[in-house]
Design a protein that fits this description.
The protein is mainly α. It contains eight helices and no strands. It is globular and about 55 Å long.
């Protein structure tokens, strides 16, 4: 739930902020549909296949009256939304000199990569990847590979370019995209390591 909320909230943040400042359209409707139906669904479903956490018995029972997400969960969703939305906006305006379609393609791909790689932060809310086991959920890795492959096709394969209103992007755009993606993997991992060390 937190994963899907953070992904969708990031898209909303980017779109709404761009409307407020009066910028060109950052995503076209078909791209939003692609993000929500094609790429988000597969990783979200396989996230549900994660095995029980090894330290689950060390936590107190969950209060039945507690909200599903709660204030802490909403705070995490908000942080991810602000970062992913801001990163996509930064990518968009950094590439706007190359044309609106080029900039939209970079922002679109940036958001997809951010959403895909942020899934690692939600595999466990307390344990880092080293404790969970990077290969412990092969279905998630397969889904991640397939959806990222689909996004690359969306950028370079002419039939999908026509449907999704994308265009081929250059190496500089990919470097920017990947640099913006790294924090959604490293920062949550660092926080979990610090918290695990304190426990």
């Amino acid at each position: 739930v937190r994963y899907l909320l953070s992904s969708n909230a990031g898209e909303v943040f980017a779109i709404m902020f761009n409307i407020v400042i009066g910028g060109p359209l950052i995503f076209v409707p078909i791209q939003i549909l692609w993000m929500n139906l094609v790429t988000d669904g597969a990783t979200a479903l396989t996230l549900g296949l994660e095995r029980s956490e090894e330290d689950s018995m060390r936590h107190p029972p969950r209060d039945p009256s507690e909200a599903i997400v709660g204030y802490k969960g909403l705070f995490i969703v908000l942080l991810f939304a602000i970062y992913t939305g801001s990163a996509s906006l930064f990518a968009f305006y950094s590439m706007l000199d190359h044309g609106v379609v080029f900039a939209q393609t970079v922002a679109f791909s940036t958001m997809v990569f951010l959403e895909k790689f942020s899934v690692f932060a939600f595999r466990s809310l307390s344990l880092p990847q080293a404790r969970i086991g990077f290969f412990s959920n092969p279905a998630l890795l397969i889904a991640l590979t397939l959806t990222l492959g689909a996004q690359i096709l969306a950028v370079y394969w002419a039939p999908l370019q026509a449907v999704l209103h994308t265009t081929a992007i250059d190496l500089d755009a990919w470097i920017l995209l990947l640099v913006l993606t790294v924090p959604v993997v490293l920062v949550p991992e660092a926080v979990k390591y610090v918290r695990a060390g304190k426990r």
